[in-house]
Amino acid sequence: MGAIAPGFLWLIAWRKAIGCLSCEMYSGWNEFHQTSCMACSTLLAGDMGGTKTLLALYGIKDGRLAQLHQQRFISSEWTSLEPMLEFFLNQRPNDIEAPQHGCIAVAGPVNNRNARITNLPWQLQEDQLAAAASIRQLELVNDFGVLIYGLPHFDETQQVVLQAAGPQEGPIAILGAGTGLGMARGIRTEGGLIALASEGGHREFAARTEEEWQLACWLKDDLGVDRLSVERIVSGTGLGHIATWLLQNSDTNAHPLRPVAEEWRTNKSNDLPAKVSMAAAKGDLLMQRAQMIWLSAYGSAAGDLALQELCTGGLWVGGGTAAKQLAGLQSATFLKAMRQKGRFEEFLGGLRVTAVIDPEAGLFSAACRARILAESSGTLS
């Protein structure tokens, strides 16, 4: 095939995208398109936390991302991410090409292409990681903010609709209760989706009821703090705090979770939040009450975020608790609290709200971002 002027190729691609030109009208286009896709079809994705790290290679099949290879690492067993990346890529199956673009979601803030990992003494730098992996372009993204890139591409196996609504344009947002409360928003532009990280989980908790006020006063005293952030209550840890508060009453001395809560209160040595959920599922009335308080506060936080971002493009609920607490997120307790915002109740009732239930949503979203990087560089179509 003879040389094709770059400007002419761009014109062909643009006219095809808007439906004005068939590929067959230019005989060299298919050959060029297939060759460029085959050359750079593998993408690197990672989801790195203080405990474990997932690394994967993705390809594109029928226009969708398809995972080709994955490996799980214990983060603390490695001195840094660079040797882990080298090992993973060197051990990949022989029939998988080396990636040229990648994205790694990290548990920590990312500033100026640098990241410090929470719970690990690691300082990461994009250029050094790219060099270690022999990869053309690698981007670090906060592990909650990266979900923004995956949201438009999740299928029905990765998400569940909590509140249905027709398709709308506009900003999108996500929050998710896990160890803390993550938040992020996405802005649609002509150049694509822009993800903006947030620390909204640390904003002030505002009690809405007498019960929440009493809880907040007790928790501030118990933690020895002057202010209470939303994530102290709306998080997996927060569910433990709520249960522990309810178990302080003298009439709960015989409750089987009382000693468990006291131990957790001291050193967090057991998974009290999980035990609370299990007890509630088995009919424990006190733990059901704890769960209702938690779900109501969670719903209110979701409504606040939706108003703050005016996310007409949709609101998602993710985090480590989403799949485990799916029935609660579908309940009137959560949804009513989300919508109960005075004059904006109708607006909130018209938003599409969806729960992300895929345990590998972060890894998939990192692959989505890697695909965007490849496409924007012109090496992937």
General description of the model:
The chain is an alpha/beta fold. The chain has 2 domains: 121 residues, 2-Layer Sandwich (Nucleotidyltransferase, domain 5); 157 residues, Hexokinase, domain 1. 39% of the residues lie in helices and 22% in strands. It contains 14 helices and 14 strands. The strands form 3 sheets. The chain has a 6-stranded mixed beta sheet with strand order 9-14-13-10-11-12. A 5-stranded mixed beta sheet has the order 3-2-1-4-8, with helices on both faces. A hairpin with a 2-residue loop joins strand 2 and strand 3. Helix 7 packs across helix 8, helix 9 crosses helix 10 and helix 10 runs parallel beside helix 12. The longest helix is centred in the C-terminal third of the chain and has 25 residues. It is globular and about 65 Å long. The two termini are 19 Å apart. 40% of the residues are buried. The N terminus is likely disordered.
DSSP, total strands = 14
Q: Based on the structure given, which CATH architecture of the largest domain is correct?
A: 3-Layer(aba) Sandwich
Mean pLDDT: 88
What fraction of residues sit in β-strands? 15-25%
Order of helices and strands: HHEEEHEEEEHEHEEEEHHHHHEHHHEH
User: Per the principal axes of the C-alpha atoms, what is the gross shape?
Assistant: globular
Largest sheet geometry: 6 strands, mixed
The CATH class of the largest domain is identified as Alpha Beta
Write the CATH fold name of the largest domain: Hexokinase, domain 1
Radius of gyration: 24 Å
Structural class: alpha/beta
Low-confidence runs: 1-39
Number of domains: 2
Oligomer: single chain
In whole angstroms, the N-to-C terminal distance is 19 Å
User: Tally the helices: what do you get?
Assistant: 14
Strand adjacency order, main sheet? 9-14-13-10-11-12
What helical percentage do the residues reach?
25-40%
